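User: Sequence in, structure out. Go.
Assistant: Echoing your sequence, followed by the structure tokens.
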Amino acid sequence: MAEKPTSAGNGRSGELQIVVCELADEHYGLDIAKVFEIIRHQPITPVPRAPMFVKGVINLRGRIIPVVDLRGRFGMAEVEPTKETRIVVAESSSTRVGLIVDSVSEVLLLPIDAVESTPGVAAGADAEYLRGIAKLGDRLVLLLELDGLFGLEDQNALAGAA
């Protein structure tokens, strides 16, 4: 079972500040300390032989950023970008990466006690990217651990694409 998250981001002790993104009507949270910026979807240059969920690269103010479709990474159906689609530029295992999400809805400051460990049914080798689950009233936000989102082979492919 995953360990309970500790405070991070710009929140005070005992709090976690997250950026809430949506994918297929589900809410996902990213530690704000790992997020550099959020940009509108833009043309992406494909990279040959990249993993299926790596859509390619973008040039962001002179820096080449690999772009990952989180829907593809999580095995969800692909959809065409909309005016709400965003690329969240974040740090994963020392690599700056763009994450395509359906939308970004808000930034929240969560008390650590609102976050529960990942249930055993969701834990395991395939779920290292789950940091925990935040309960916000009647909705749940799955907290992503970006460093666990990609295996070593994926990290090498991302670094090679950049």
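User: And one key feature?
Assistant: The chain has one domain: 15-161.
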